[in-house]
Structures
1.
Amino acid sequence: VRVGVDIGGTKTHAVAIDGTGRPVHQVLAGTGSGAAAVLAAAVDTVTRLAEDCGMPTWQFESIGVGIPGTVDVASGRVANAVNLKIDELELGGELSLRLGSPVHVENDVNAAAFGAFRLLSGTLGGDSMAYLNLGTGLAAGLVLHGELWRGARGGAGEIGHIPVDPNGPRCSCGQRGCLETVASGSAIAREWPTGHPRPVQELFQAAAAGKHRAIEVKRRLVRNVASAARLLVLTMDVETVVFGGGISSLGEPLLEAVREVFADWAADSPFLASLDLPGRVAVLPDEFPAAAVGAALVGGTVSEVL
Ligand SMILES: [Zn+2]
């Protein structure tokens, strides 16, 4: 049994997976903020999983953790996990001590990319994939030749901070008009303020109902999401771009809207038409715990498992 833990801004989600990579037990807990709360939530979920599995935590074959922020996978150190109010934390070391077992730490988007690849590569084909996380922020994880590509310094796939509009809003990173500011949950929050618990669903419904402002905001959002996917295909030539994160819970309507944008572009550009962008996008199935499953798999020797 391998265990993966996805530490998110509000929830910590732990899964135990069997030899085929299928989740057999799952546990959820609130995360809280600050190092102590984050550690406590991770230990709590893994301990509860151990009870469910009927074995002590140190008997798990491997334990992996996905967390937002800058992760040094060799040391297990996390830095700049802003949403969790963590400047720096020896997450791997601290958890290993508490759980009595080595713990592999991975950036959460990279973990989700690997989980998505393991789930979908059989149906989508190819040995390369970009996972585009459309959450509050925007970032991509890359799987090349079946392995996670983190980059020379761990920054691969940080396309959310490519400026696309010199006159756009100031980004949290200090630049102006980053892709993240126009193709993410924060873009929707700025352009379509609402108290609705699922703002993007409400936006798409309002657009379908013919509200002009909603149509305009939706069109811009979808165009920018399509741009992000095009960017990933043009830079990495990955076989597939898989959408995940909060906005991807739209499912098929998001894919349809993005494919319409691709079709518009292809009509003007034989070059883009030749890339077959509409055939190269997919959406992560709702509720699949990609980051937790990916965290469980990426730390171990995956070929042994699958
Ligand atoms: Zn930025």
2.
Amino acid sequence: MTQYIPVTTCRDCGLLQQIRYMPDDGAVKCCRCDAILHKRQRIALAKSIEHTLALVITALILLIISNVYPIIQVDAEGHEMAATLFDCVKYLFTNEMKLLAGLVFLTTIGAPLIQLTGLLYILLPVNFNRIPPYAPKIYRVVRIITSWSMLEVLMLGILVSVVKLSALATVVPSIALWTFALLMIFIAAILSDLDTEMLWEQISPKIQKMELDKLKLGTQLTNCHNCHLLCTLSAEHDSYCSRCSAAIHFRKPNSLTRCTALVIAAMVMYIPANLLPVMMVTSLGKTEGDTIISGVIYLATNGDLPLAIILFIASICVPTIKLIILSLLLITVHFKSQWRPKERTYLYRLTEFIGRWSMVDIFVDTLMATLVQVSGLMVIEVGVGAVAFGVVVVLTMFAAMAFDPRLIWDNMEVVNE
Ligand SMILES: [Zn+2]
Ligand SMILES: [Zn+2]
């Protein structure tokens, strides 16, 4: 029988390497770019599944409570107002901002709901040693949707809104505020608790380990981008992962072209996002528009410096830095630069990590507009700038997904050969 030697390609630099020692508890990093190749948790499989399942069920209950009860209650001049998260989505939808409504719904309700119900569907039978139908395909969807769940960003948005609203009215945090905070902690715990590699092996036990010595010379090997299974690529036809059915590519197809187009589109949309008002405030018959920058300046000059700094970083620094980094990566790859590949890979990982935080401003504007509707006294509306800003966030997220960091390293190999 062929002895199985764990071989893998790095997801960030593409290097094919052998794992000589796999610790029971810990991670193995790529020898070239420091990306994590394999990660194992100490807890035994049965205990790990049971543990994660308990967290998933609790998180689902918290998600339901968080959406049934209002997040914040506001008392302005005797007018009491309260809003659930769904009220915010409904507000945007009825105010001709369907795109933004869809984005807020996906990132705060849809994605966590799909993520948690998907995990429940898989983990509950697995806990009783059964494999539910279509488990690998469903787990693939769960892994894709996870990057769109932005509860931690929403939480920051809620806190910023509470501080901003307390200047206008009496703000009473409602039950959903606490359950949202708990839900955010539980989802983070689920993500760190779940041993994804162990779960993949559990839900697809029939997958054969690749017998490397039987492969033809020159066979292209790459790991599935979704489930990390090592697969062979065919030159003649499209290849699909035998475990999760995702399309397999040696490099993401048309990565540079797609990423360039998305970055240019995001740069174009960045102009109206900053020039048009993101929030319209009507007070005593007078309407004033607030752009992102004027909102930050207003907070800074009115004594809310910490809040101004948070919004400045999330809404101005993050999108700008992300666009600069992506442009730098595109230009250096296009000109086949060999300049600091490891650092450029770190920059790429940074764009994946920071991008979501720009959503804070959209959550703040939506919450404030939904809550402050005192006719005759004060009305807050979401401005068109917020829609443009939402488009920038989505475009930059897609651009980062379209970019293939392995292209940075391909240029290194060309000259070294
Ligand atoms: Zn690597
Ligand atoms: Zn796969």
3.
Amino acid sequence: MERQDRQAVRTDPLSTQALIIGAGPVGLYQAFQLGLLGMDCHLVDVLPHVGGQCVELYADKPIYDIAGLPRCTGRELIERLQQQISPFAPPMHLGHQVTELHRLEAGGFQLHTDLGLSITTPHVVLAAGVGAFLPRSLPLEGLQSLSGVCHAHQPMPSPAQAPHVVLAGSDEQILPPLKHWLAQPTASLTLLHRRSKLDLHGSDAAWVKQCLDSGRLRLVVGQAIGLAADDGALQALHIAPPDGDAFDCPCQVLVQCLGLSPKLGPLADWGLAMSKRRIEVNTRDFGTSEPGIHAVGDINFYPGKRKLIMSGFHEATLAAYGVAERLSAGPVTLEYTTASAKLHQRLKV
Ligand SMILES: Cc1cc2nc3c(=O)[nH]c(=O)nc-3n(C[C@H](O)[C@H](O)[C@H](O)COP(=O)(O)OP(=O)(O)OC[C@H]3O[C@@H](n4cnc5c(N)ncnc54)[C@H](O)[C@@H]3O)c2cc1C
């Protein structure tokens, strides 16, 4: 599963019968069920790859409770789901966070992403799990708007002069930016971490130790508690060490390599009925309090809800029927994949 850099796009609004927010296991299966019922859809995920929690949190761990699959890793399950939806080839917009939902006067919705994509649709399926996985930042007010500040996986800033570069983090996320900046001979490199012990192993740990021993990289142990900026550009971080007095660490480039954390974010402000930070749904078709918007998987709440992949698959199946019935303004006949020539045609089997 390929990682892509987030790049701003400006396009004319796209249009689809259903927009799925979230390409975790449930969002992917939602695309399958919509395709099976003859509907097109688009998927959007803020991560640069599909798979949600399965890939982000436990890609190589085995799952034992998927029906008919006695054992498979998170990554294998996602690869199988991708294979299953391949006949429908739903367009996927990865690296985009859906930030806005507007109700259209004529009915339906227009949604916008942080990178400028806009999509109109009569149906939205929220498969947003525990929220959008967004990069963690240092908790310093005003930091993110300064020039010279970025997250790992983003394009590196390119300041005019030899910069003081600080990498904040301690695990393998520091490796690509470290390699990038080591190739710039004039940059001074600092690794900032709360403890002296890094979360690296084997050859990665040995390589970083070599960089430290050679003096090309220095380790600063402590927490950033303040910053200094000049004309919108970061100049220094104020560091509190575990012992002793706080001090300034020069910093014109800050690369935050602090992992990802899920944030419900803008979805919570769309006026949908919520319970315990999750979206309330009915159990007939997993519709929310607003007609045309469904919620499936970990994001939803109903009595008896269990945050399990199998529960999400069931919810996605009934949500697809709900969308199909709304589109056809009437009941949709159930057909079996084993026997239906129409479904075989859709599945290209
Ligand atoms: C360690 C661990 C082990 C687990 N083991 C099991 C197990 O053995 N069996 C089992 O059944 N379940 C297990 N689970 C639970 C399972 O992973 C979840 O139930 C499942 O991932 C939910 O799928 P989902 O598609 O609803 O959400 P997610 O997997 O969370 O995917 C949601 C996606 O939506 C994206 N998103 C959210 N908001 C936005 C937005 N505004 N714009 C764009 N994208 C957005 C997120 O980036 C994410 O990729 C486990 C969970 C964990 C953490």
4.
Amino acid sequence: MLKQAEEFMNRFFRSTTVGLLALGTVFGSGEVAKAVSFGTSFDSAEPSLQELLDDITVGGPRIDTVNNQTGFNLFTNTASGGSVATFMFEFGDYRGINRFGIYNSSGMKAELFAGINDVSDGASVFFLENGDITVSTIGFPPGNVPSPSIQQYNAFGNIFGFYLETVEGTFFTENSRNPGGVQQAVVYQGNNQTELGIPGRQPGVFTDNEYIIAFEDLLRSIPGNSDSDFQDLVVMVESIKPTTPAAVPEPGTVTSLLVFGLGSAWTLRRQRKKLEN
Ligand SMILES: [Ca+2]
Ligand SMILES: [Ca+2]
Ligand SMILES: [Ca+2]
């Protein structure tokens, strides 16, 4: 009896997944039109974001830096009330200066990585019940290994975007906060298939609660000012999920369908877990 129920749920789950994939395609085609176009680095010796991701891909399909852009810009924590960020790459003249962190709707910033941080360094964010957050940042080899730091931020909340603070200003994952409304970051979501090995870390599957946030540190609203290589500071963040479908404007129906689709997938997965237990 239990086996039958499980089989039914499995079949149901599979068909829902197919439906979701179809939805994703509809949604994705809108995104592709909006996807950012990469430029060649001003320093021609720098690898592209595509090359960097290909280099650390140890299994599964490669991440397509153009077609896999999501448009997600605001996030929240998952159930544990904590999130972890891992520094992946930085290639640019301002690599020793750029600062990276999360910000909330009132513009309050919480720094995760300072100028001294580099590849493999980690930052944990603890989202407390009273709305405060605590950020602890730890340096790891390779590269710099700065001393650990802990910082508390009061009344930060748990809805946030990501920022990059550089000599040309502060850039945000929400385009509307950037000068000229331009896009300064691209965001990729894990696909549960690609295996990545970040230097200094054990390799593992790029799961769907993990996101790669890749920033461009030169202002793109001034023609010719930016090389748009989007590998000036790149971070992987896990145990987060988007609060909004995506920054892609319209179509509202597709958006709500996607939310509904994801909602049912979660419910089903939970139900399936219960059946398995
Ligand atoms: Ca660069
Ligand atoms: Ca390091
Ligand atoms: Ca750049």
